[in-house]
Amino acid sequence: MRILIRGAGDLATGIASRLYHGGHQIIMTEIAVPLTVRRMVAFSRAVYEGRAEVEDMTGILVHSMEEANAVIQDGDIPIIVDEKAEIVQKYKPDVIVDAILAKKNLGTRMTDAPFVIGVGPGFTAGLDCHCVVETKRGHTLGMVLYAGSAIPNTGVPGNIGGFTTERLIRAGGNGLIEPVASIGDMVEKGQVVAVTGGQKVYAQMSGIVRGMLQPGVQVWKNLKIGDIDARCEKFHCFTISDKARSIGGGVLEAVTGFENIRNKYAIVVLAAGRSLRFGGENKLLTTVSGKPLYEHTLARLEGFWDFSRFVVTGYHEIEKRAEELGMHSVINLEPELGISHSIQRGLKACLEENPDIQGVLFSVCDQPKLHPATIQRLLNTAGLHKGQIICTANQGRPGNPVLWDRKFFPKLMSLSGDNGGKQIMAEIPEKIRYVEAHAKELHDIDYKSDISDLDYRE
Description:
Blueprint: E1 2-6, H1 10-21, E2 25-30, H2 46-49, E3 51-54, E4 57-62, H3 65-73, E5 77-81, H4 88-91, E6 95-98, E7 115-119, E8 124-125, E9 131-133, E10 144-145, E11 148-149, E12 168-170, E13 175-179, E14 186-187, E15 192-196, E16 199-202, E17 207-212, E18 218-219, E19 224-229, H5 234-237, H6 242-261, E20 265-271, E21 287-288, E22 291-292, H7 293-300, E23 308-313, H8 316-324, E24 328-331, H9 339-353, E25 359-364, H10 372-384, E26 389-394, E27 397-405, H11 409-413, H12 421-427, E28 432-436, H13 439-442, H14 449-453
Helix pairs in contact: 1-6, 6-10
């Protein structure tokens, strides 16, 4: 798969190592003046040295997509100075990994690529990325989160060899850095290890210098410019860290999971109902939280543009908006035939586009609180449990959406009238796997009073 990694620091390079050895094609972006402390194990070094060797990998500075392609052909990794990752337009990656580690999102969106991974704090799964990988040292390091965010930044460095804040070397003043100690040197507490802006910087502990900024870089007071390791293993200074490998493993897991479901599932939104219980009005066009009810569902599918998405409807407004968002419209002008008719029209459209499709996720259009993270977890679960029905639920109460494996397509095609999938599920409960969702997500709008039953503020 084509993967773009934003950032080329030591943790981003650990991620690149996992993906590179997994056989994926990689381009990494960096800023013009990288401030990577552990630069001997970071491809960011290529920005000012032209190339960087990290273990058995080589990163080479490039200036265009053409140069990047040549480097990739040679089996190496292109590094390009591209702060806003504008190369995305030409590279068209399958996956974007935001590994800038800025502790906040600097502009990455869930719609930037078919699959987007946020690394560390500042990202929320289903909001600005498809998943988040935890970066905080401890029990959950490297965990892939398909709901929520990573643990917020505490401002306290992780414990290495019994030391936290003491192991950091910080600039004593504004100005250029002049390292006195080199990476791999042994130093004693109180020893001068660098000069910044004319101010001497002293080691706060004894150990080995594991990281130090390159000479001549403009720094400012209290900026992290180096790192001391009490374990005193020189090998650690020039090889990818355990933390970087763990985070890289999480990213590789996420990429593999996406690869497992890509091009195998479609999403069908059912939006052709007559709203009989809504007092004669078309509920899907009713304004909820500042926009038509149906817009909430369509908006939550924007991040899944790499999947085939169909909207079954008989309403021109919905048809038009769906097509603006790159979705396929399936016209149903016979809503009186019941939900079974919409299901079958949607399923037929999916099979016409891809006869070998593994499954179809059916979603209704009146659940304004449905979260994209839940959709992602349904798809992931289906990829791991083929031949099953994957259904959302809250504390044992099933709801929508539901993802149907192709094994059950004949049963769906045999439905009639206003009978939906619940009829089939009641007959084969052993074939159902549930994905837990918040109660608000499962709440659908049938009556006007349902709108006031929940807080719909975004």
